[in-house]
Amino acid sequence: MAVYNVHSRVLPGADADEAGALLDGLATDHDRLWPGDNWPPVRFDRPLSVGADGGHGPIRYRVEGYAPGQWVLFTFTGPRGADGFHEFAVLPRPDGVELRHTLAIHARGPARLSWPFVFRWLHDALLEDLLDRAEREVTGTVRRPARWSSYVRILRGLARGRRPDVVPDLVHSDV
Predict the structure, then answer these.
(1) What is the largest CA-CA distance in the chain?
(2) What is the CA radius of gyration of the chain?
(3) Considering the domain boundaries, does residue 155 fall inside one?
(4) 62-118: per-residue pLDDT in tens?
(5) Does residue 168 fall inside a structural domain?
(6) Within-domain flag for 8
(7) Please, which residues have CB within 8 angstroms of residue 99's CB and are 6 or more apart in sequence?
(8) What SS3 state is found at 59?
């Protein structure tokens, strides 16, 4: 099963250097991009550079390409059945900067079920949280904060071993 998934956000008034600095800080002690307050932190075995291995939670990947401040490309190394890549790109625009995340995989074996029923929903929620964070960092606010769906809250509750009906509604504000 082919999967192509894109999330992007225009950061109005931002310049490429501001957004690029967010990208370059990924997985550092001062990471201002990754929403580690609500999601497993992204970690690598060395600073962000080609050849760095790591990931977040059960998702594992290797840095295959990196242009500081502009682009980073990761190839998946786990879980089994997710063959492909994901990348972040900082794209200058006349009205600001677009931060884009692209995921392209061929789901096989267990991923044929885990992607559409579990990982897709969590991935989409995480990426929207990340884009909210980027927007807040460079503009000071978020025009339309992302909200987790009931299904995402249920999946997160199950992953934590809680009953889904007692998982708090973690709606993000724009403060």
Answers:
(1) 47
(2) 16
(3) no
(4) 999 999 999 999 999 998 899 999 999 999 999 999 999 999 999 999 999 999 999
(5) no
(6) yes
(7) 8, 9, 11, 19, 22, 23, 88, 89, 90, 91, 131, 134
(8) strand
